[in-house]
Sequence to fold (392 residues):
Amino acid sequence: MKTLAIVGASLAGLSAGRAARAQGFTGRLVIIGDEPHRPYDRPPLSKDFLLGTVTVEDLSLECDTDDLDAEWMLGAEAASLNASSRTITLKDGRTVQADGIVIATGARARQLPTLAGLSNVFTLRTLADAQSLAPELVPGSRMAVIGAGFIGAEVASAAASRGMEVTMIDTKPVPFAAQLGTEMGSVVAGLHTANGVELISSAVIEDFYSGEGNVTGLRLAGGRYVPADVVVVGIGAEPNTGWLAGSGLELRGGVVCDSMGRTGLPGIVAVGDCAAWFDHASGTHRRIEHWTGALERAALAVEALLDADAAPKPAKPHYFWSDQHGVKLQFAGHSAGYDRLEIEVGDVVTNSCLAVYYREDVPVAVLGMNQPRLFTKWRRSLPAPAAAAALS
Fold:
């Protein structure tokens, strides 16, 4: 392989570049990114960066030991892919032809078309998003967060710590239930209400009110009116795969891949938030939108690209973390289908505990709240996804 092109210049793309060099690739390495920035860390955007405790420079993912010898094409959005010739066409008309391609174009925040173009409505996915939102965290102002996912919850936490009046509105009965189950989802919901965030669950938004280009409030089914000076939309993300239409790649909730990141076309792999890898735990293809997935899986995808006969490697249990109202939440594994939850250490009332999810007496997931050391020990003991799947 003489030329390797990586489309996407965030964590997954940078990790793929590092893996390629570490695995002995000495050819031409091209890294294409649609943002003008070098790779930066996204998790702090909804936490420390919003609060001004870290700077843009602190977000850099590159380090002094990086020696990628790469050609960086930044501010260059991919427009299409000719898979047969492995040619990437950019929106500015330039083309890049490669022997191998890593697709790492990530995902974008879902929008509410009704609110498009209004000046006090924000999503949070990129550095530019965070830079726009940060000045709006003004004590005494009213923030409405639509969606109680982890991004919305972290923004709500940051805003509340700044003295804002925060209302978090969610369509589900219990926030975070899909990831944490209803029991611990309720515990985390209580963390917000204890810190002054009003949580409205099972809500249906019927109308928005606006004036002079701003949202002034929203009305819920049942007639309640929620005033707002700032609105943050946190309703999930969509994979950036539109540029791959007509390429021949299977696109179904992301770029469909096997358990090593191989697509159905030779010489092309995908990794990160845009990639729907085969997941042995669920027996389906699914996107894993977590930092550690982008970091760790890139090496597997590059190995599969450089060695077509590379044997499948066991994936680590899924892991993510979140910081909300001064509590560090860490979660690993899959809670789906658990039949027993045990608080092994601590107490949920103090927001310092370790909860273990069991299925047939086998631990399949673990949640730590301000228990980093014990969480790490339990995380290491969880069965690999394939082993966990055998319990189903």
The two ends are 41 Å apart (CA to CA).
